[in-house]
Amino acid sequence: MKKVILICVVAVLMFACKSQSATSTSTDRKAQIAIKGNWEISSVTYPGSQYIKVNTFQLADSECFVGSTWKFVSNNNKGVMALTKADCAAFSSPITWFVNDNGQFVLKVLSAGEKAKKVRDGYVLGLANQTETSFQLIDKIDVGGKMTDVVYQFQKVN
Fold first, then answer.
1. Is residue 132 a contact partner of residue 151, using CB atoms and an 8 Å limit?
2. Check: CATH 3.30.450.40 for 25-156?
3. For 23-79, how does the pLDDT look when each residue is reduced to its tens digit (9 = 90+)?
4. Long-range contact pairs involving 134-139 (C-beta distance under 8 Å, separation at least 24)
5. Which of 61, 41, 40, 59 is nearest to 49 (CA)?
6. Cα(77)–Cα(81) distance, integer angstroms
7. What does the pLDDT read at residue 49?
8. Residues 102 and 25 sit within 8 Å (Cβ to Cβ)
9. CB neighbourhood size of 127 (10 A)
């Protein structure tokens, strides 16, 4: 009898302590509405950037994202991003995105005509320093066993 009770207690604790997925929380509509519009990445910064190359979103070197344009539509959580920097491969793609109640920005880069539910890989970034004209997305990467912040600085485009 003691074993049965112990197993039940352990099972309850395991389910109660289960972490919540970034996609299973509700959305932060206020933060999403503030992001609506056209934006440009003005800088990408991280410690050791002069020595370390970061492959952002498995698409291109992080430096290729400086000057990239992003359009966010808040009522349907869709948009478009485009890399246009000289000396970098041109790239444009539809995206889906949302901001959850934990202050996390959830992003999926789609292929043309592809539905978001068919895309298995996405990115969860921190949203910080949000104003009417700027915000930051912060990605965490592992550099030599130490977690390092990569900060993408967005500026509003008129």
1. no
2. no
3. 556 777 889 999 999 999 999 999 887 788 889 988 999 999 999 999 999 888 999
4. 135/34, 135/35, 137/105, 139/56
5. 61
6. 13
7. 77
8. yes
9. 21
pTM: 0.78
Give the CA-trace dihedral at 146, 147, 152, 153, to 10 degrees.
-90
**Type and span of the H or E element at 9:** helix 2-16
The residues spanned by each domain of the chain are 25-156
Separation in Å, CA 137 to CA 6, 75, 118: 44, 20, 24
Q: What is the C-alpha to C-alpha distance for residues 107 and 56, in angstroms, rounded to an integer?
A: 12
CA distances 4 to 8, 11, 14, 15, 153, Å, are: 6, 11, 15, 17, 54
What single DSSP character describes residue 149? E
Instruction: Label each residue of 18-65 as H, E or C.
Output: CCCCCCCCCECHHHHHHHCEEEEEEEEECCCCCCCCCEECCCEEHHHH
Amino acid at 118: K
Helix (H) or strand (E) holding 13: helix 2-16
Residue 92 is encoded by which pair of tokens? 């444009």
Measured between alpha carbons, how far is 148 from 51 in angstroms, rounded to an integer?
14
**Max Cα-Cα span within the chain:** 71
Stretch (H or E) spanning 158: none
- The pair of structure tokens assigned to 12 is 């309850």
